[in-house]
Amino acid sequence: GHTLDDYNALTRDEQLALVHPDDRAAVQANAERFAESDGREGRESTYRLRSVDGYRWVATTATILATNVDGSIAKLMIPGIDIDHRVEADAYRATILDSSPAGIAVYDVADGQATYVNAEFRALSGYDLDTLQGLDRPALEVFIAGEERDEVMARANEAVRSGEAPEVRHRVRH
Questions:
Q1: Strands 105-107 and 44-51
Q2: pTM greater than 0.70
Q3: Helix, strand or coil, per DSSP, at residue 107
Q4: Residue 102's pLDDT is what?
Q5: Which helix (H) or strand (E) segment is 125 a member of?
Q6: Residue 11 pLDDT grade (very low, low, confident, very high; cuts 50, 70, 90)
Q7: Residue 2 has pLDDT above 80, yes or no
Q8: DSSP per residue over 11-68, as a string?
Q9: Which of the pair, 136 or 155, is modelled with greater confidence?
Q10: What is the DSSP letter of 70?
Q11: How many other CB atoms are there within 10 angstroms of residue 21's CB atom?
Q12: Most exposed of 14, 42, 55, 59 (fewest Cβ within 10 Å)?
């Protein structure tokens, strides 16, 4: 949308005004954290940025290219990618999963953390969202009835290895 000349003509306040009002405080805090940590923290940001045709979701990663003699930032590169379609798809997926009559939990295989649990899963387990998302995968095993736990976990581990998701039915303990 904007040309380099258009953007360079803006003051810092005008540049910040291109960020969606709901995202400005977080973007500012991230930029301050980045500057105060000499680029070690606050490198990545996701926010809505105004373009010529409305707001678009972008993901950016800041990198210091050069510093002044006093250590302050002289040149900074902040490439951004348009992730608007991904954000819309994630919202659509969440709507579908949230309305499912099945209890659904999504795990990050690398660290075993629950990254998403729908309302039905929360109702089945009796735990709130924050508690469930804080549990690691082995802790979630406590929700599976004892006599079925070994079989269910063996099938889940095989699914992780093979990449194929089996249908697994089991009772849930509260």
A1: unpaired
A2: no
A3: strand
A4: 87
A5: helix 119-125
A6: very high
A7: no
A8: -HHHHHTTB-TTTHHHHHHHHHHHHHTTTSS--EEEEEEEETTEEEEEEEE-EEEEE-
A9: 155
A10: T
A11: 9
A12: 14
